[in-house]
Design goal:
Elements lengths: L1 H16 L3 E9 L2 E9 L9 E7 L6 H7 L2 H8 L2 E5 L2 E7 L2 E7 L3 H6 L9 H15 L2 E11 L1 H12 L6 E5 L17 E4 L1
Parallel strand pairs: 3-4, 3-7, 7-8, 8-9
Antiparallel strand pairs: 1-2, 2-4, 5-6
Amino acid sequence: MKKLMHLIVLVLIVGNTLLSQRYDAKMLLDGKIREFIVVRPSGSVPSGGYPLVFMLHGTAQDGEKFYDITSWKELGEKEKFITVFPSSLTYCIEEDGIMKMTTKWNNGGLQHIACPGQDFKDDVKFFRKMVDTIKVTFPINGAMIFVSGFSNGGQMSAKLAIEMNDVFAASTSNGSGLHDLDSGAVAHKIPVWDMI
């Protein structure tokens, strides 16, 4: 029995080195702790570096939930790209006359329904800092950095297509699109796919 247990432990250790690796990251930015999950696929680094895909959660969710319920980390393992699951901050919003606290990306979707008097943090700055941090930690293909989001995360993904088109190669949104408060001129156009 003891030999069997050693064999099981050895198989688990060897098997784990063949799987993707999860890194839980935190950074202090503008007085707030910001969190994100990075998943690196197993195996060798692709020629030219890893593509990088950010997956953005919707309202009342976080990066951990999207790590658990989406299939992006599995697709990243299959296609050999790094996936990132960041978490937004919590703000007070008012819907149908009811005020409540919830997670939300700081974009037009939040600004439209936010309770007054809050200290809004710059999520575009958060994304720039995440990209810079990941690029010094892993070999990243700078021409293959992408962002995708769902609902409020889709609004943020569309906002990033406007404000970070110098970084992101393409943007997708599901269940939402660019909020009119985030509209603006772009330095150069990138592919954008919105699914409503």
